[in-house]
Design goal:
133 residues; mainly alpha; 7 helices; binds zinc ion
Length: 133
């Protein structure tokens, strides 16, 4: 069985998505495509839906582990606290007025503000469920 080899058209969304090319031109094209898509009302709604879904999944997973494997949960909570640099957030908070040039995408606090509904629908806060028993 022979198959016609169609060359990849690099720098296109098709190259990235259907041909699975990960060269910088195809990555850039896919990134631009998604940036434009997220600006459409459907794209923005879909992005928000998946953000909320992702948080809900994480909450349910954390709740399950906490209830069924409390020793594992304690270990996860300790690891998380080690991996997240508290000082970094405290420092950012203190120098807020000097961060005007920073991209909102670099600031986790800005992301959580954008997805305010995500935190509003939260029944429990995963980072607070480990030590309050
Ligand atoms: Zn490519």
């Amino acid at each position: 069985m022979s198959r016609k080899v169609v060359p990849i058209n690099h720098g296109t969304y098709n190259g990235y998505t259907n041909r699975k090319c990960r060269c910088s031109d195809c990555k850039h094209a896919a990134s631009e495509y998604m940036r434009r898509y997220r600006k459409t009302s459907h794209g923005a709604a879909t992005t928000k839906y998946y953000a909320v879904l992702s948080v809900k999944r994480a909450q349910l997973a954390a709740q399950w582990v906490k209830e069924n494997m409390p020793d594992v949960w304690q270990e996860i909570a300790r690891d998380a606290a080690k991996q997240v640099d508290k000082e970094k957030y405290l420092d950012n908070h203190e120098s807020e007025s000097n961060d005007d040039a920073a991209s909102p995408g670099d600031d986790p606090l800005a992301i959580s503000a954008e997805n305010r509904d995500v935190t509003d629908t939260a029944t429990t806060s995963p980072q607070n469920t480990g030590t309050n028993q």
